[in-house]
Amino acid sequence: QKEVEQNSGPLSVPEGAIASLNCTYSDRVSQSFFWYRQYSGKSPELIMSIYSNGDKEDGRFTAQLNKASQYVSLLIRDSQPSDSATYLCALRGGSTLGRLYFGRGTQLTVWP
Amino acid sequence: DADVTQTPRNRITKTGKRIMLECSQTKGHDRMYWYRQDPGLGLRLIYYSFDVKDINKGEISDGYSVSRQAQAKFSLSLESAIPNQTALYFCATGRRGAEHSTDTQYFGPGTRLTVL
Lengths: 112, 116
Fold this sequence. Notes:
The structure holds 2 protein chains of 2 kinds.
Chain A: E1 4-6, E2 11-14, E3 19-25, E4 30-38, E5 45-50, E6 54-58, E7 61-66, E8 71-76, E9 85-93, E10 96-102, E11 106-111
Parallel strand pairs in A: 2-11
Antiparallel strand pairs in A: 1-3, 3-8, 4-5, 4-9, 6-7, 7-8, 9-10, 9-11
Chain B: E1 4-7, E2 10-13, E3 19-25, E4 31-38, E5 42-51, E6 54-57, E7 64-70, E8 73-78, E9 87-94, E10 105-107, E11 111-115
Parallel strand pairs in B: 2-11
Antiparallel strand pairs in B: 1-3, 3-8, 4-5, 4-9, 5-6, 7-8, 9-10, 9-11
């Protein structure tokens, strides 16, 4: 069983601040990592994916991966109230390439 | 049109009834998945299918069954619904990815099921 742990939250930041979401995992053979955003009552939506160590930037979002320390993080710069959602960390890899393993999510609130 | 559709979107039923949730996709993906989501528990995998003849149980398959009628269709059945199956159910699709691929899963809009 692959364990995926996320900072429990909820996380609350003011508009314009940097929101930092963290995720640790137990399986060293995990290959690819994903961040999904989920608004209340809606389906998860992919916002970032990463499989190489280091940073990957897409607009206001930066994913950071450190396989040696087994963590992946998501930074949201210039946070907006519309970023208020639950963020799910997921991983894929090893002998079960077809499956994703999800963390329980971190709820983020960005207040004006 | 949505790439992954689920029907019904909302359903209220009674204990003991048989319920079928349907999922269709136009993404051309070979892999399909059923999850349920409960508050505080995240997404839990019920069943998954890598192609029409390959169906696998997930972590919480008891009380559920599935049918992969075609590459594009994957149905979830609750043979005899019980109240603790009240949840939000998601279908997802994906394709076979290489070892370092970022191919991932894409979710349908969800079905909110209430069992009284």
